[in-house]
Each structure stands twice: as structure tokens, then as C-alpha cells.
Amino acid sequence: MIDFGLYCRIAEYIDKLREFSGLGDDAELFIQYLVEKDEGERAVREFICGCDRRTVLQLMDYFGPDPKVSGLLKGRLKELDGGTELVVGGEGPGSIRPEEPSFYQYLCQMIERHGFSSEAEFYKHISMSRQTFAKLRSPDASISRNHALLMTVGLRLNYQEAIEFMRHAGYVFRGSDKRECIILYVIRNVNYTLSLMEEILCSFNQRPLVDY
């Protein structure tokens, strides 16, 4: 039996921080990085590079002079005030963030990268109808949270890929949601498949990812 005790306690801690600090989902994800500790400075920098000015100021107020994060936050604020976006792994401070692809373009890149020969092979793998998948081709298409989670698991993404995939879909993992805590724990700690994830969710009386 997989022990979710520690992870659930982390989720509860994050939820309390959010409640008392008044920070939003972006800050919650950042706190999650810090609490879990083992993703390293690069993961924290990647997140900060996606924060807007309001979130940076909230985080600076919340963490104060904490040496772990204050320098990174001040650097991000300087970039925002200078009218440029900092890119991790780019040409250094002042690099301009290139325009991101649409979610559909990004999804197609991930489908190819993770070994699927076609879109059809992928949407059949996750038991999604052709009509539902086709709607994603529209430039203004939106994707439901559950479908974003289903695709994340169906692609068998690692932890960092999963965080990035959900961001492209317009979401973050919610530390206060038991189902998403379980999904994220399995992604981080188990060599999983979609069927195994469904079994684990079922064993915890959580809604499955596939809409039957």
C-alpha cells in the first residue's frame, strides 16, 4: 500500500498557509516547491519567471527577507519593472520570453515527444472521443481541469512536465484537493500508467480520470 500520509500533511500545511496569507493559486504552487524542497533552485526560478508583478509583491511581503527566495523575487521584480521577461536558461537578464505556442500546438509536441505516433493513437489511449479532441484545435479553445489531468497522466509525464503541462492548460495542482494530491504524489513517486492511476484513485474513493 502506498503511504500518502506525509503528502497529505504537506497539502494541509499548504492550505493553511494560503488561508492565513491570502495568497492565490500561483503563490500556493510556489510554497509547494519550497515545502517539498527537493526540486532545487531551477524549479523555483522557473516558477518565479511566470509570476506577474502582483504575485511577486505578495510573495515578497509573505516571505520577507528569507534568504532562500528574496534575491530571486527581487530579480524578477526588477525584470518586470524594466519591461522585460526573464527566461531561465536564456541569454541572461533582459532576455525576452518568446511567444508561447497555443495549447493545441504544445499538446501535439508532447504527444510526439512521448512516443505516440498520431493524435488518434493518443486520444484513443485516454478514451477521449475524436470530436472532443478536435475542439482543442480552435485557437480560443479551453480544456476542462479533468481533461488536463487525464492528458497529463495519459502522457505519463514526470513531475516537472506535469506542472508545466497544467500551466499551459491554464491550471495549477491544488494542494487542498485530495484527488489532485494523490495524482501528483503518484506522478512523483511511482512508475505509473493510466490504468494504475485509475486503480489508485478508485482505492481512495476518488473520481476516475476517464469519463465513462
Estimate what percentage of residues fall within beta strands: under 5%
- Number of DSSP helical runs: 12
Count of individual beta strands = 0
Could you report the average pLDDT, rounded to the nearest whole number? 75
Helical percentage? 55-70%
Q: What count of structural domains?
A: 2
What is the molecular shape?
Answer: globular
Largest sheet: none
Which series of helices and strands comes N to C?
HHHHHHHHHHHH
The first-to-last residue Cα distance is 26 Å
Structural class: mainly alpha
Q: Which runs of at least 5 residues are low in confidence (pLDDT < 50)?
A: 83-97
What is the gyration radius calculated from CA atoms? 18 Å
Task: Outline the structure in words.
60% of the residues lie in helices and 0% in strands. The protein is an all-alpha fold and 212 residues long. The chain has 2 domains: 5-81, no CATH class; 103-203, no CATH class. The two termini are 26 Å apart.
Please give a quick description of this structure:
The protein has two domains: 5-81, no CATH class; 103-203, no CATH class. The protein has twelve helices and no strands. The chain has helices at residues 5-21, 25-36, 40-48, 53-63, 70-81, 103-113, 119-125, 130-134, 145-154, 159-169, 178-189, 194-203.
List the SSEs and their pairings.
Layout: H1 5-21, H2 25-36, H3 40-48, H4 53-63, H5 70-81, H6 103-113, H7 119-125, H8 130-134, H9 145-154, H10 159-169, H11 178-189, H12 194-203
